[in-house]
Task: inverse folding
């Protein structure tokens, strides 16, 4: 994010504005930039608490943080170069709230459920999915998206102190697949998977698709994931990799494509069990890649023994 900041010779901030950003426009509009910039006006650069002066917007936390970080970087640089003043980095504790606690508990319960009998395991799964739908979905709108994974591949690592949930989600997903061979995120933590499961329970239908169509959809999904990541790499904009309809459901904000996908998936979910999860979700491609790594590691260990 590129932000222009104006400062008077006496150290007073006059204005600030976003010149360029690489966020999805839909999410960037959720960040109340004018309100934040207005709060900086007529303030001296060494009297601003950047950590408390901006509120994170649900579903756009990273955009909010990027906005504050950009202004802070500009002000800090001007303060050092023009006023010979060093603005100290404030001590920030790790933020561990309802979302972080919920994610940690959901993975822990999902892990323990793998060692229980099927009836109790199913009860726990329904319980975790209700919690995931309400907290990870509608309350926080924080499911894993391809854009978040792509951002990490770019080397964009958000501050772990204020993004504990993000690292818990991605870490729990990757570690459960690599060490257990089971995707605990999709089974217990993904709110969109839970929404599809509840709709299918209402519809009461579990139609099976022909094997050739399943293979075709899986191949198409993998191709779409590669194209999305390539588009993000080519434009240096991780947000371009996002096409999941999560925001349309949980934040009621989305592109035309996302609303279309959401409508189709919700309708099909009445007849087919978790269609997005099984045939279209990019996390399924990530899961297959991790399972391949797990298998290669297992084969390597066996060859050494």
Result:
């Amino acid at each position: 994010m590129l932000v222009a900041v104006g400062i008077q010779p006496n150290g007073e901030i006059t204005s600030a504005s976003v010149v360029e950003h690489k966020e999805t426009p839909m999410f960037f509009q959720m960040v109340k930039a004018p309100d934040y910039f207005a709060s900086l006006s007529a303030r001296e650069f060494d009297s601003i608490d950047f950590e408390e002066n901006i509120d994170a917007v649900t579903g756009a936390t990273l955009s909010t943080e990027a906005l504050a970080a950009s202004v802070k970087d500009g002000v800090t640089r001007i303060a050092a170069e023009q006023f010979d003043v060093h603005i100290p980095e404030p001590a920030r504790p790790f933020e561990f709230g309802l979302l972080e606690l919920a994610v940690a508990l959901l993975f822990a319960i999902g892990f323990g459920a793998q060692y229980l009998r099927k009836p109790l395991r199913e009860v726990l799964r329904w319980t975790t999915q209700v919690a995931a739908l309400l907290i990870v979905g509608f309350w926080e709108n924080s499911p894993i998206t391809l854009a978040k994974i792509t951002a990490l591949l770019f080397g964009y690592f958000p501050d772990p102190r204020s993004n504990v949930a993000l690292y818990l989600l991605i870490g729990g997903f990757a570690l459960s697949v690599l060490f257990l061979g089971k995707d605990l995120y999709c089974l217990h933590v993904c709110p969109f998977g839970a929404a599809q499961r509840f709709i299918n329970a209402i519809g009461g239908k579990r139609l099976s698709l022909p094997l050739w169509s399943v293979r075709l959809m899986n191949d198409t999904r993998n191709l779409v994931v590669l194209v999305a990541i390539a588009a993000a790499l080519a434009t240096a904009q991780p947000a371009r990799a996002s096409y999941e309809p999560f925001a349309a459901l949980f934040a009621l904000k989305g592109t035309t494509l996302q609303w279309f996908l959401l409508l189709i998936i919700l309708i099909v979910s009445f007849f087919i069990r978790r269609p997005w999860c099984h045939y279209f979700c990019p996390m399924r491609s990530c899961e297959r890649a991790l399972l391949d790594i797990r298998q290669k590691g297992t084969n390597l260990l066996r060859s050494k023994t």
